[in-house]
UniProtKB/TrEMBL annotation:
SUPFAM superfamilies: Acyl-CoA N-acyltransferases (Nat). This is N-acetyltransferase. PROSITE patterns: GNAT. Pfam families: Acetyltransf_7. Coiled coil: none annotated. It comes from the Bacteria. Residues 1-156 form the N-acetyltransferase domain.
Length: 179
């Protein structure tokens, strides 16, 4: 298995993976929603504001993750939010998700990204360095439906401190339903 950055040439496989995995995990509607989110992210996001990583095994895309930029109006740190994240249903539980996320975080850190955020299950994401944060310390772009799923980590030697100001995500992520 090999990990790659940049979706170019694999866009359709990556979006299909997101649609299928979420349909199988959470139902047809969620599959459609997350499939569309991945297409919107790839189509609408400036290249400097999106990092896509994926895993290939025997010519097939078996996992994919996306990080998109978040901007805070009183803090100039370089911040990216992770999501969506998907591992092919038949390949879950093999460690692929954790390995691909770790690969992505390391690549972002090397590129100078200072903070990674995500919004998901703390039990899973704590395995790749994420810790709970509050909306007071790090504003979310929309009021969170599940504040306990708001997570962050520093990608530098300095521990994560409060990020000042209100936040803005990329256009594709700018729908309350994702938060
Ligand atoms: C969640 C997901 C990305 C994890 O990837 P994965 O490759 O299956 O996970 P890994 O093999 O690296 O890690 C497995 C461990 O994480 C745990 N884990 C996996 N999914 C989990 C979840 N949704 N919540 C909590 N723990 C989870 C497993 O129990 C396992 O723990 P164990 O080693 O003690 O048995 C993958 O299962 C998936 O794509 N699920 C459907 C889509 C989804 O929920 N995406 C994330 C949205 S936030």
């Amino acid at each position: 298995m090999k990990f790659f950055e940049n979706a170019s040439g694999r866009e359709s496989d990556i979006c299909k993976l997101f649609g299928n995995v979420f349909a199988e995990a959470e139902g047809a509607e969620e599959g459609k929603l997350i499939g569309q989110l991945s297409r919107d992210l790839l189509r609408e996001t400036a290249s400097g504001d999106l990092h896509t990583f994926y895993a290939i095994d025997k010519e097939n895309v078996v996992a994919a993750i996306m990080f998109s930029r978040m901007v805070f109006n009183q803090d100039d740190r370089d911040v990216f939010v992770l999501g969506p994240v998907a591992v092919a249903t038949a390949r879950q539980g093999e460690g692929i998700g954790q390995s691909l996320i770790s690969f992505g975080l390391k690549t972002l850190a090397q590129a100078g990204v200072e903070v990674a955020l995500t919004y998901g299950d703390p039990k899973f994401y704590s395995r790749v360095g994420f810790k709970p944060i509050t909306e007071e310390d790090v504003a979310a772009p929309f009021k969170l439906q599940y504040p306990f799923g708001w997570l962050g980590q520093s990608l530098t030697a300095t521990p994560l401190t409060s990020i000042k100001g209100s936040s803005r995500c990329v256009t594709a992520m700018g729908k309350p339903i994702y938060w």
